[in-house]
């Protein structure tokens, strides 16, 4: 984080990344002094309503964040910045997205938690678009022109006012991570799932919160001790993990929908289980309680970077043994197949949502982007095949870091290629992928 004083004193000359959060109501003109080098501009958590018309003078600008400001319109000047690939305006009061506001090279657009009712047809001209985050808006429909954005891989449309899930969306050649819970069209499935299960309530007083274990886009996870309540059925006096949600709408959707999917996920050896829902948090924060996963388990991968956009990141030199690869791939394909049978698309099937022990045992968690569907309904097959691509990408990441015997390599590479086919319907099901992986493993 930088300060206005540093900027004004010329102390930031030569920087590529500027982060200012100090109650700004106007764009500080001194930022233009950094034009020769500035690539990433983060003005989140201020009180801005506009950007200057000469913003394109920042000729090297690739990334701009203006989250948690007071914009009501996505500034048109963004579209005049030819080098901009990422635009993040989460948690403003944006109602209007003018066609002119979309930069031609846009890869990653974040409008989470705004009041957008409609997207311009011109979004179809953003053919480089890979990641589109629109959760928590007022969208009633998506422009069909979006189908022209054939590089789209990750789409968040949860917590909107969509009346239907468009067929063209489910046929998009690279779509791999989709979240749509909390829309009118998904309400019936949500209610059916809520009726089918009940979740234990765990009062806040019974939890003694300890150290932070992890953090993602939607929540902070703490270790905690769960005390046994008197006169209530004992869940156990044990060490647990508590996920506390950061807000009413997360980048993936609503805590209520995450809870429903999590509770409906059922038992599977490769899924993180859920114990209950936090009740009575003093600030009304939503949360869920899980068994504490052995601290020997770590994240399989890091989340995407600004550069990798949709793909997870791994430490340089990361290597998986053959047993590890089959342990992870076999466990995760089985867990995801189990979810598909129950009408749950995970929506965020990524290495960064997998905990693994380093010897092949792996656990899939984080239902924040999960969406429900009727397993015998009209969209089931397409939704499942969409997530098969996410599994195919994970498999690719594992294979790139493993020395497999030649014949195994060839068979697995063939499966991997099928999982990511552009023709959604031609991909195998997870059940088929699981069978092949198990036969190669044997
Ligand atoms: N039950 C658990 N036990 C131990 N650590 C956990 C548990 N659940 C989550 N974590 C840690 O917290 C991180 C973030 O959890 P996740 O559910 O993915 O949150 P988010 O929705 O914010 O991405 C995980 O990657 C993991 O490191
Ligand atoms: Mg996560």
Secondary-structure blueprint:
Blueprint: H1 4-8, E1 17-19, E2 40-42, E3 63-65, E4 86-88, E5 108-110, E6 131-133, E7 154-156, H2 167-170, E8 177-179, H3 187-196, E9 201-203, E10 207-215, E11 219-226, E12 238-245, H4 255-264, E13 276-279, E14 287-291, E15 298-299, H5 322-341, E16 344-345, E17 354-356, E18 362-364, E19 371-372, H6 380-399, H7 406-419, H8 430-441
Parallel strand pairs: 1-2, 2-3, 3-4, 4-5, 5-6, 6-7, 7-8, 9-13
Antiparallel strand pairs: 10-11, 11-12, 12-14, 13-14, 15-17, 16-19, 17-18
Helix pairs in contact: 3-4, 5-6, 5-8, 6-7, 7-8
The structure holds adenosine-5'-diphosphate and magnesium ion.
Magnesium ion is lined by residues 216, 353, 366.
3D architecture notes:
The chain is α/β, with parallel strands linked by helices. The protein has 3 domains: 149 residues, Ribonuclease Inhibitor (Leucine-rich repeat, LRR (right-handed beta-alpha superhelix), Alpha-Beta Horseshoe), CATH 3.80.10; 92 residues, 2-Layer Sandwich (Phosphorylase Kinase, domain 1); 144 residues, Transferase(Phosphotransferase) domain 1 (Transferase(Phosphotransferase), domain 1). It is 21% helix and 17% strand. The protein is built from 8 helices and 19 strands. The chain is globular, with a radius of gyration of 23 Å. 43% of the residues are buried. The mean pLDDT is 96. Adenosine-5'-diphosphate binds next to strand 10, strand 11 and strand 12. Magnesium ion (MG) binds next to loops.
């Amino acid at each position: 984080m930088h300060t206005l004083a540093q900027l004004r004193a010329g102390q930031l000359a030569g920087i590529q990344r500027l982060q200012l959060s100090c109650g700004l109501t106007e764009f500080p003109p001194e930022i233009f002094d950094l034009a020769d080098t500035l690539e990433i501009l983060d003005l989140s958590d201020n009180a801005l309503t506009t950007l200057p018309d000469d913003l394109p003078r920042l000729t090297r600008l690739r990334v701009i964040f203006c989250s948690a400001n007071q914009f009501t319109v996505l500034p048109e000047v963004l579209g005049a910045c030819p080098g901009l690939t990422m635009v993040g305006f989460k948690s403003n009061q944006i109602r209007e997205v003018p066609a002119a506001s979309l930069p031609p090279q846009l890869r990653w657009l974040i409008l989470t938690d705004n009041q957008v009712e409609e997207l311009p047809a011109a979004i179809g001209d953003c053919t480089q678009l890979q990641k589109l985050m629109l959760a928590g808006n007022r969208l009633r429909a998506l422009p069909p022109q979006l189908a022209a954005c054939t590089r789209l891989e990750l789409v968040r449309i949860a917590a909107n006012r969509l009346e239907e899930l468009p067929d063209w969306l489910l046929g998009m050649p690279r779509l791999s991570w989709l979240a749509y819970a909390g829309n009118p069209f998904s309400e019936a499935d949500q209610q059916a799932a809520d009726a089918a299960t009940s979740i234990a309530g765990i009062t806040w007083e019974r939890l003694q919160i300890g150290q932070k274990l992890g953090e993602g886009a939607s929540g902070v996870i703490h270790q905690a001790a769960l005390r046994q309540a008197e006169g209530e059925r004992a869940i156990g006096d044990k060490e647990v993990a508590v996920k506390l949600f950061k807000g009413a709408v997360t980048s993936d959707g609503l805590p209520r929908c995450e809870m429903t999917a999590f509770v409906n996920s059922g038992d599977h050896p490769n899924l993180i289980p859920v114990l209950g829902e936090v009740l009575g948090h003093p600030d009304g924060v939503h949360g869920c309680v899980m068994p504490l996963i052995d601290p020997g388990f770590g994240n399989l991968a890091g989340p995407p970077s600004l550069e990798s956009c949709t793909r997870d990141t791994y430490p340089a030199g990361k290597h998986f043994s053959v047993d590890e690869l089959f342990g992870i791939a076999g466990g995760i394909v089985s867990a995801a197949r189990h979810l598909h049978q129950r009408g749950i698309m995970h929506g965020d099937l990524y290495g960064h949502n997998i905990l693994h022990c380093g010897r092949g045992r792996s656990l899939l968690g984080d239902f924040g982007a999960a969406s429900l569907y009727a397993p015998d309904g009209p969209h089931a097959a397409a939704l499942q095949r969409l997530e098969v691509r996410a599994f195919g990408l994970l498999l690719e990441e594992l294979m790139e870091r493993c020395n497999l015997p030649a014949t195994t390599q060839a068979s697995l590479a063939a499966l991997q290629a099928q999982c990511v086919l552009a023709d959604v319907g031609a991909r195998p099901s997870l059940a088929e992928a699981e069978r092949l992986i198990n036969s190669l493993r044997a």
